[in-house]
Design a protein that fits this description.
With 252 residues, the protein is of the alpha+beta class. The chain is built from 5 helices and 12 strands.
């Protein structure tokens, strides 16, 4: 394996693999064995990568495949909002390593977009401890660095396609540095600063949105995030709906 030049802040440590079924699955296996918070699983390729709702995640060599293990001391509901922190951290990292050439937008609930195309997917999985308390979180983040799938459900792009080829090692190092910046803020000030940073990059705010829920479909305008991270949709009659989970489609 070629030597990597990844630099991690204090409190984070690397589990590096050539290939793995899924970095999220490997991080969960480490968690079940007692691994500490801050473990970062990084692989050059995945054989069974997945996104939200079990969708396949194309994983050729050349892109970023990572999963971060965290053990926050809070409820599962509070911990789930860390997906927004990860989105902000990765967006900032991409912007930094590309010299501000690429500025991703944050798409609710867990993607990063550039020019209306997906460049990063985030997948949060959790385990509880004694009811509602969090045992651990595993947050996977995959970035299309060199390649993007041309058969995905939604349009995608890559940093190379955008004319901004970067080193995966540099991107990982910068990403975790931004996570290390935001985590203490979240721990001391709560979700509000994360929410504000996310909204600055919010994809589709002020534009039409369709939300497909389990039993119905809602149409309206995306007007922001609630204090718990729910998407706020205002329908044509002026009624505001809080959406905590579902598939959303934007017209931007």
């Amino acid at each position: 394996m070629t030597a990597r030049t990844i630099r991690l802040p204090e409190g984070f440590y690397l589990h590096e693999l050539e290939a793995i079924d899924s970095t999220n699955d490997e991080a969960k296996r480490l968690a079940d064995k007692g691994a500490q918070s801050g473990a970062l699983v990084l692989a050059r390729s995945q054989t069974s990568g997945r996104g939200r709702r079990g969708r396949d995640w194309s994983s050729p060599v050349g892109n970023l495949y990572s999963s971060l293990l965290l053990r926050p001391t809070c409820s599962l509901a509070e911990a789930a909002r860390l997906t927004f922190l990860i989105a902000v951290a990765m967006a900032e990292a991409i912007e930094t390593v590309t010299g501000q050439q690429v500025r991703p937008d944050c798409k609710w609930p867990n993607d990063l977009m550039v020019n209306g195309r997906k460049i990063c997917g985030i997948l949060l999985e959790s385990a509880s401890n004694k009811g509602s308390a969090t045992d651990y979180l595993v947050i996977g983040a995959g970035v299309n660095v060199a390649f993007f799938p041309d058969d995905s459900e939604r349009l995608a792009t890559s940093l190379a396609t955008l004319g901004a080829p970067v080193s995966v090692d540099d991107l990982v190092s910068t990403y975790i540095a931004r996570v290390a910046h935001w985590l203490p803020i979240w721990e001391t000030e709560g979700f509000t600063p994360i929410r504000e940073a996310w909204l600055i990059r919010g994809y589709g705010i002020g534009n039409p949105v369709v939300a497909r829920l389990t039993e119905r479909e809602l149409e309206g305008t995306f007007i922001g995030l609630d204090d718990d991270g729910s998407l706020i949709l205002r329908d044509d009659s002026g009624i505001e709906h809080r959406i905590g989970a579902g598939e959303v489609f934007f017209s931007t």
